Amino acid sequence: MKKRTDRKIAIAGTAAAVVLLPAVMVGLAQAGVGVPKERSEARGDAEPVPSFGPPTKPGSTPSPKLPRVPPGTNPFRTGNGSPSPDDPDTNAAGRATRPRLPGGAGPGGYLKAPDGAAVSSVKRLSARQFDVTIASPALGAKVKTRVMVPKGWTARSSRSWPVVYAYHGGNDTYGSWTHDSDIEKTAGSHDVMVVMPEGGFKGSYTNWWNGGKGGIPEWETFHIDEVIPLMERNFRAGSMRAAIGLSSGGQGAITYAERRPGVFRYAASYSGPLNITAPGMPVILTSMNREAGTAIWGDPITARANWRAHDATVMVAKLKGTGVYVSSGNGQPGPYDDPGTVPWHAGRIGEQLAGVMTADFVRAAREAGVPVTASLYGPGMHNWKYWQRELDRSWPAIAAAIGARKS
């Protein structure tokens, strides 16, 4: 009876901590929560929350300790924009409701996805770029996807083209790849399409837990079961696919390849959070996503299985047969950073966190016998200059895996 009571107290305490985290983050940091000195998520009067990342095997090197995250810091922020009015992640009123097709699905000349997702409009941006607005049941909203096509592309062609699906990071939007990188130059020399879908301002790349109710937003469903068929049915996208992403988009690229075996031939993560159940990470992630809290993956204890089901390191064995590239710095100022950047700068903290988790992922991959190309390049912060460099480094392997030839 006492053991059961202690467990209830531990669960209640964790739930209360998640609610209060925004107001007491300084106290938590000072107390060491999120920076455990032992392999546990928290310390206090209740029993320690067990670590549920991949176990450290005898003789293996333990992961470095995670840095403390100052209050108000978003270490995985990748842009300076703001969410759209219809952003599903920040629309609390629509959260956990049943998937539904928003009004005004658009012209009937486009084929729909199996769940009824429809092309609402297409806006030409240039000779080789256009934005597709998708009316998504999975999100209960209309969101955009940017498409870059190769020379000679036409939607009326009898052939299809290999495709790279590129996912953006947190606090950013679908347009970031063309705004902040040279992906047009990198991919433009090859016979390949690049599809850049909206991923939500919180950048979680998952069907949200929503207290076990599920429902809107369902980002995995949108990206895999809506965007891909809409691209293939209407815009000549082929079935030779790769997934790439930066920061939380890197997590999306890897976990989608794991959760949906065979969908992607190659997956690349640049500074992605690839071990969300590592000791200390659940506290950091649930406090960082303050508006969403535990709605994304659930309570780290009671919804432990769901956290593990979205942890790239836990699922790494599912990548056998898929090409993989991962990269990350260690958070110290590198060649593209101000050498005097203070240690508590969000870009330093974010990359240190990403570096620890990426190293965990690489170790787990090697133990599981999964070949991985890893670029753990040392000094470097969480910013686009490094992600562009890593995109260029990984591009030859990506293009080769999906049969994208130089044009």
Textual characterization of the structure:
This protein has 407 residues and is of the alpha/beta class. The chain is 30% helix and 16% strand. The protein is globular, with a radius of gyration of 21 Å.
Layout of secondary structure:
Layout: H1 2-31, E1 118-126, E2 129-136, E3 141-148, E4 161-167, H2 176-180, H3 183-188, E5 193-197, H4 219-234, E6 237-246, H5 248-259, E7 266-270, H6 281-288, H7 304-308, E8 323-329, H8 346-368, E9 373-378, H9 384-402
Parallel strand pairs: 4-5, 4-6, 6-7, 7-8, 8-9
Antiparallel strand pairs: 1-2, 2-3, 3-5
Helix pairs in contact: 1-6
Descriptors for this entry?
single chain; 407 residues; alpha/beta; 9-stranded mixed beta sheet; 9 strands; globular; disordered N terminus
Topology order in helix (H) and strand (E) letters: HEEEEHHEHEHEHHEHEH
Indicate the percent of residues in helices. Answer: 25-40%
The backbone outline, from C-alpha atoms, is globular
Helix segment count? 9
* Strand line-up in the sheet with most strands: 1-2-3-5-4-6-7-8-9
Sheet having the most strands? 9 strands, mixed
Tell how many strands the DSSP assignment holds: 9
Mean pLDDT: 84
Instruction: Please compute the radius of gyration using only Cα atoms.
Output: 21 Å
Class from helix and strand fractions: alpha/beta
Terminal CA distance reads 70 Å
Strand content: 15-25%
Q: Catalogue the unreliable spans.
A: 1-61
